[in-house]
């Protein structure tokens, strides 16, 4: 009886399965010949034209060394403002970008390693995948963690890989995902690393690991640019002191400052000079033997610092009632009235700033030289974002500055009074990176 009931329903099952099979087959044919660009659909003319264009641009890129600009994701010829390829660089913005003319490659430097690209912008190599590697300033040594230990290696840029890998430690006590973020400083064959609430000094040549007996307190941007010195503060019997740890000598020196006054905004402006505030007072430490000295008192307490000038002489300071431009050598300061929203040094004594306000008398891109009058060079402010930075590129050796504003790319001499729009742009640009020469 059961079998007869199943047999009677068989045509219904056959119809259902037939419909499923037919719809699946139709979907497959649609996917194969329409969506996926199969032989029946033929090549995409737009994609083919773009591929040919990118190939043509790739052939001329080596001849444009020193004249290439990455603006957001797009590649431009700097002098003419000509858009070479749009949507050329598809990865996140790097710290620095290089043209390796000899190998016909593009090298991007990130905080956790290097990536290599063909001249068409396609990724073809990586040093520092997964959790990344630490690289020294000379780009000839890398540090990373593997199986709980620190390793060091050289770099082969022909093969674009790490070579001569050598294990430094043998304690298996280092955490690979957090290794880079816990590097305090690294220089002259020595690594200072924070590990499990300990501060360790690791000799990369002898593999000696020592727990530091006089821990340095890391306060803000306390590492000198070359990594040799680390500044901090602590309290002792005499009160508050500034501490300077010399990595090369493995020595900490203390320098007395005003008692019972909290440090704030500790920062190195170059390899020789560290500055810090104690409320209204700006103090400077010089590694060349002058110790700590107070150089000026501001009208209001320091609330923030901006990027110093290229030589480290001048510094923007955000006070409680305004913005100040401080001369660390002369000991004076200027009050900058009607401050802008973004500032960028274009040479050792001049900067651009953007006022993005409705007031037509103030709105625009302005240039100012230290001690001089501000000059409006464009009626629209240059583009900037907190994430990408500013679309300003100063080239001091050429005496030129480039920036992007609404509707176009602008250029002018560094001492100019009016910027010239030399190329229209189809979209706002917020990041400028010049492709540097690769010397490795």
Question: How does this model look, in words?
Answer:
11% of the residues lie in helices and 43% in strands. By secondary structure, the protein is mostly beta strands. Among the domains are: 1-42; 128-213. The strands form 10 sheets. A 5-stranded mixed β-sheet has the order 7-6-5-4-38, with no helix packed on it. β33 (392-395) and β34 form a beta hairpin. The radius of gyration is 29 Å and the shape is globular.
Name the shape in a single word. Answer: globular
End-to-end C-alpha gap? 85 Å
Which spans of ≥5 residues are poorly predicted at pLDDT below 50?
none
Kindly report the average pLDDT value. Answer: 86
Radius of gyration: 29 Å
Helix content: 10-25%
Enumerate the strands of the largest sheet in spatial order, edge to edge or round the barrel: 7-6-5-4-38
Count the helices. How many?
Answer: 2
The number of strands is 38
The major sheet is characterized as:
5 strands, mixed
How does the helix and strand content classify structurally? mainly beta
Task: Please describe the structure with a list of short key phrases separated by commas or semicolons.
single chain; about 450 residues; mainly beta; five-stranded mixed sheet; four-stranded antiparallel sheet; 2 helices
Topology:
Layout (H helix, E strand, L loop, with lengths): L1 H34 L9 H16 L7 E4 L2 E4 L5 E3 L10 E5 L4 E6 L2 E5 L5 E5 L6 E2 L6 E5 L2 E8 L4 E7 L15 E5 L2 E6 L2 E6 L5 E3 L17 E8 L2 E8 L4 E6 L7 E5 L4 E6 L2 E6 L4 E7 L4 E4 L8 E6 L2 E6 L5 E4 L5 E4 L4 E6 L8 E6 L5 E4 L5 E2 L3 E2 L1 E4 L4 E6 L2 E6 L6 E5 L7 E3 L1 E2 L3
Parallel strand pairs: 4-38
Antiparallel strand pairs: 1-2, 1-37, 2-3, 4-5, 5-6, 6-7, 8-9, 9-10, 10-11, 12-13, 13-14, 14-15, 16-17, 17-18, 19-20, 20-21, 21-22, 23-24, 24-25, 25-26, 27-28, 28-29, 29-30, 31-32, 33-34, 34-35, 35-36
């Amino acid at each position: 009886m059961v079998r007869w009931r199943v047999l009677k329903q068989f045509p219904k099952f056959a119809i259902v399965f037939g419909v499923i099979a037919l719809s699946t087959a139709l979907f497959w044919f649609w996917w194969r010949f329409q969506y996926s660009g199969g032989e029946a659909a033929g090549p995409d003319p737009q994609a083919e034209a773009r591929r040919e264009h990118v190939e043509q641009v790739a052939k001329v890129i080596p001849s444009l060394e020193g004249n290439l600009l990455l603006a957001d994701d797009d590649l431009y010829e700097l002098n003419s403002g000509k858009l070479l390829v749009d949507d050329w660089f598809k990865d996140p913005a790097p710290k620095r970008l290089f043209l390796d003319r000899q190998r016909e490659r593009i090298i991007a430097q990130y905080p956790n390693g290097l990536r290599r690209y063909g001249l068409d912008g396609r990724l073809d190599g990586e040093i520092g995948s997964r959790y990344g590697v630490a690289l020294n300033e000379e780009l000839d040594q890398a540090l990373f963690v593997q199986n709980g230990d620190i390793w060091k290696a050289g770099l082969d840029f022909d093969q674009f890989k790490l070579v001569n890998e050598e294990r430094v430690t043998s304690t298996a006590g280092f955490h690979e995902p957090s290794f880079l973020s816990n590097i305090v400083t690294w220089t002259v064959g020595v690594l200072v690393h924070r590990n499990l609430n300990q501060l360790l000094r690791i000799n990369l040549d002898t593999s000696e690991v020592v727990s530091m007996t006089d821990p340095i307190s890391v306060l803000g941007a306390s590492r000198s640019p070359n990594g040799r010195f680390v500044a901090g503060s602590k309290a002792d019997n005499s009160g508050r002191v500034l501490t300077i740890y010399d990595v090369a000598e493995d020595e900490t020196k203390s320098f007395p400052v005003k008692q019972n006054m909290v440090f704030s905004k500790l920062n190195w402006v170059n390899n020789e000079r560290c500055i810090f505030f104690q409320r209204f007072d700006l103090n400077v430490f010089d590694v060349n033997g002058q110790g700590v000295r107070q150089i000026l008192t501001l009208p209001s307490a320091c609330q923030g610092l901006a990027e110093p000038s290229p030589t480290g002489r001048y510094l923007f300071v955000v006070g409680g009632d305004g913005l100040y431009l401080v001369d660390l050598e002369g000991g004076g300061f200027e009050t900058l009235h009607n401050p802008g929203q973004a500032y960028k040094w274009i040479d050792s004594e001049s900067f651009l700033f953007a006022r993005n306000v409705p007031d037509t008398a103030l709105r625009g891109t302005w240039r100012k030289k230290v001690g001089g009058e501000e000059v409006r060079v464009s009626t629209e402010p240059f583009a900037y974002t907190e994430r990408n930075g500013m679309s300003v590129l100063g080239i001091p050796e050429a005496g030129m500055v480039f920036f992007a504003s609404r509707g176009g790319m602008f250029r002018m001499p560094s001492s100019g009074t009016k910027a010239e729009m030399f190329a229209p742009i189809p979209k706002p640009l917020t990041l400028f990176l010049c492709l540097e020469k690769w010397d490795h």
